[in-house]
Amino acid sequence: MVCVSIILSVQYPLMPSIKAGNIRKGTHIRFKNQPYLVTKADFTSPGKGSAFMRCRLKSLQTTSTVEFTFKSNETVEELDISSVKMQYLYHDADEVVFMNQRNYEQASVPIGLLEDQLQLLLPEMEAYVLLFEDKPIGVSLPTKITMTVVRADDAVAGDTVGQAKKEAEVETGLLVQVPLFIKKGEKIIVDTATKQYVSRA
């Protein structure tokens, strides 16, 4: 009797990867076998030597940050992130809570992962909660949102040259540079990526 040994080749799904030179702010990557969010990415191409990408990374597990420099041609694993549309409910000192309006399930995102977005969250606004391995790790906000001005500095006399601006505060406490004609009580459109004034609503 002849015994034949058969070795089966198992194909595992390949994780998506990108070149470090293509890393951008907001990219989610695996770094030293841990999930991280890229909060800053600066590309440098020196006259001599290889180009590189200097990044600031925030841990999705501890919210602590680290700095690291990748060679631009280095391959980096990009995380498989999913999202679900939810409604913002509230936030406290530890977490930001959203609710799925279809099944009323709630999701809590650690507040440390949303620090720069807190002043863009409006009551009952809808956003996409980002999930990694079914765990909430961030939020994708609408590109533009409408906010109400609660305080607007008076325009300085004679300050009308060019695109003169003044400081205004909206309902969430966010400070925005707005044109001189904007007054308290008006609604304005704000770009959530830059936190800058776009137009009157």
Structure commentary:
The chain has 201 residues and is an all-beta fold. It folds into three domains: 17-78, SH3 type barrels, CATH 2.30.30; 82-140, OB fold (Dihydrolipoamide Acetyltransferase, E2P) (Beta Barrel), CATH 2.40.50.140; 144-200, OB fold (Dihydrolipoamide Acetyltransferase, E2P) (Beta Barrel), CATH 2.40.50. The protein has strands at 17-19, 28-31, 34-44, 52-59, 65-71, 75-78, 82-91, 95-99, 106-110, 126-132, 135-140, 144-152, 165-170, 175-179, 187-191, 196-200. The strands form three sheets. The chain has a six-stranded antiparallel sheet, with no helix packed on it. The chain is flat. The termini are far apart.
Summary, kept brief:
The protein is mostly beta strands and 201 residues long. Helix content is 0%, strand content 50%.
> What is the CATH level 1 assignment of the largest domain?
Mainly Beta
Write down the Rg: 23 Å
Approximately how much helix is present in the residues? under 10%
As for the number of domains, it is 3
Which regions have little confidence, pLDDT < 50, spanning 5+ residues? Answer: 1-13
In this structure, how is the largest beta sheet organized? 6 strands, antiparallel
* Major sheet: arrangement of strands: 1-6-2-3-4-5
Termini separation comes to: 84 Å
Oligomer: single chain
Range of strand content: over 45%
The total beta strand count reads 16
What CATH calls the topology of the largest domain is SH3 type barrels
CATH architecture of the largest domain: Roll
The number of helices is: 0
